[in-house]
Design a protein that fits this description.
heterodimer; A: alpha/beta; Rossmann fold; seven-stranded mixed sheet; four-stranded antiparallel sheet; 11 strands; globular; B: mainly alpha; ABC transporter involved in vitamin B12 uptake, BtuC; two-stranded antiparallel sheet; 12 helices
Chain lengths: ~250, ~280
């Protein structure tokens, strides 16, 4: 589905991410972990087309989407939920959701079906269709942001810090929706600082440290979160438990 | 009452400039300082079509709309697209305005040219005041345009997407919206509207190369009073500026006309800094 190979990106001449590689498969969650400033969001932004790719490739279902402008990457099947719950606060919940499908080529009839799917996934939004998004709680805004991305019927969903600033109970609800979307066959790239929340739904993990993958492998191989936490703080563990250090092949 | 009609007609023109500023600002985040010059160009094309070529009125409207829309798109491609900073856009849009001022002066000269109105030209009496038919048509056109833009922006997906681009360009990109196409489209629409109204504005103001500069300032004041990004604000702000100017000129003397407009602007900004219909904007820092 999504294959990122030797990605180098950053801001202007400053390279923030160096030769990062990982895959996201259909029906799986790949968690991109790392502490603040590790390059997780920069990686996601480069995949979405918001940051320039210096070298390396980004392929979605085998097609190189690197040369495409951001809006065409979305139309090609990327769904993006940015950090800080970037919904359109002056528009109603329903207008926000319809906008999610409007420019992605989804037909009008399908938009109605997608709306129903979103309301099933997030029942809290159903009774608030006419409410301006700015009046929703933080958790509901996050649900709306995910709903917007789903409305475009993406092949791959990228979530940037979906748990940030949310109460623990809401984080569980959001992660439950991620689990449901995964079971529906969607490939998901989850960027998170909250290790426990991410590993709970992840099938694969890649840990970034100063712009490089320092550890990656199946999440099932992790029987002790301390391994990841050590990687966070720069003490890269060995290759026990099926995990590999450095960029994957 | 005649002064009120004259003020409303003048205010409708200011409102048209403010509406043009808003269309572009909402869709692309750019303040196009050359928009009043586009309206001015519309009056010259109206003169060219009506007097020089002797075309029928409907064709003059189409010609003016197409020519000015094209010029607006050229402006977007040459003076906007490649400029990254707000300061840079200030320079390039003002530069384009100066270019249009100069080009119209070179082509049509510095003397005011009378653009004949396609309808009746005799003064009529309405609600106890004397008014030219073209002034009534101008006021009606401004009200109609405002209604159309409000309906489009509130009830069509195109309008909703346009407002989304205005609120958060990057988030709009992440919803698959081609924000660059929207920017070009906004320039084309704003240009077409400015051009199409040239045959109505020209008979009131004449086609003259200083018209753009004169309208730019009052159009900006109309937008500031009405609120950035609001079509009803452009209408109310424009009419308010026109009325204040006409009534102050009539009862306080011409030297007070512009002064009172700025007193009203200061009063509005003091009590409602976002303008009568404007919204405060959130900014991610």
């Amino acid at each position: 589905m999504l294959s990122v190979k030797d990605l180098v990106t950053g801001y202007g001449d400053m390279r923030v991410v160096r030769e990062v590689s990982f895959d996201v498969l259909p029906g799986e969650v790949t968690a991109l972990l790392g502490r603040n400033g590790a390059g997780k969001t920069t990686t996601l932004r480069a995949i979405a087309g918001l940051n320039k790719i210096t070298s390396g490739s980004v392929r979605l279902d085998g097609a190189d989407i690197g040369p495409l402008p951001p809006h065409r990457r979305i139309r090609a099947g990327l769904g993006v939920v940015q950090e800080n719950k970037r919904v359109f606060k002056r528009h109603t919940v329903e207008a926000n959701l319809l906008l999610g499908g409007y420019s992605t080529g989804v037909r009008r009839k399908q938009l109605r079906e997608s709306l129903e799917e979103v309301y099933e996934l997030f029942p809290a939004l159903r009774g608030r269709t006419s409410t301006p998004a700015g009046q929703l709680s933080g958790g509901q805004q996050q649900m709306l942001a995910i709903g917007q991305a789903i409305m475009g019927r993406p092949k791959l969903l990228m979530l940037d810090e979906p748990s940030a600033g949310l109460a623990p109970a809401i984080v569980l609800e959001v992660m439950d929706s991620v689990e449901k979307l995964k079971r529906s066959g969607l490939g998901i790239l989850l960027v998170e600082q909250a290790v426990e929340a991410a590993v709970g739904v992840a099938d694969r993990v890649a840990v970034l440290e100063i712009g490089r993958v320092v550890m990656s492998g199946p999440a099932g191989a992790i029987d002790d979160l301390e391994i990841i936490k050590e990687a966070y703080f720069g003490r890269v563990p060995g290759t026990d438990a099926g995990l590999t250090t450095g960029a994957p092949d | 009452m005649s002064a009120i009609w004259a003020g409303l007609a003048l205010g409708a023109i200011y409102g048209l400039v403010a509406l043009g500023y808003n269309i572009v600002f909402v869709s692309s985040g750019v303040f196009n300082f050359a928009h009043a010059q586009l309206l001015m160009l519309g009056t010259f094309v109206a003169f060219f079509g009506t007097v020089t070529l002797g075309l029928p009125p409907w064709l003059v409207f189409v010609l003016a709309a197409v020519v000015v829309a094209l010029v607006a798109v050229i402006e977007e491609r040459t003076a906007i697209r490649f400029v990254r900073s707000t300061e840079g856009l200030l320079v390039t849009t003002l530069g384009f305005a100066t270019l249009l001022d100069g080009a119209t002066q070179v082509i049509w000269g510095g003397e005011p040219l009378q653009v004949p109105f396609f309808g009746p030209s005799e003064v009529v009496s309405v609600a106890g005041g004397q008014v030219f038919p073209v002034e009534l048509v101008l006021i009606g056109a401004m009200v109609l345009l405002t209604i159309v833009f409000v309906l489009v922006s509130r009830f069509s997906m195109l309008g909703i997407a346009m407002l989304a681009v205005s609120e958060d360009r990057e988030a709009a990109l992440m919803r698959g919206i081609n924000v660059r196409a929207y920017a070009v489209g906004a320039f084309a629409v704003a240009g077409a509207v400015a051009g199409a109204l040239g045959p109505l504005v020209g008979p009131k103001t004449f086609a003259v190369a200083t018209l753009g500069t004169a309208l730019a300032l009052k159009g900006f004041v109309a937008m500031a009073i009405g609120g950035f990004g609001s079509a009803p604000g452009a209408l109310i702000g424009g009419l308010a500026v026109g009325l204040i100017e006409a009534l102050a000129g009539r009862y306080l003397g011409q030297s007070f006309a512009t002064l009172m407009v700025f007193v009203a602007l200061l009063a509005v900004l003091l009590f409602k800094p976002t303008g009568l219909f404007g919204h405060a904007r959130e900014r991610v820092v």
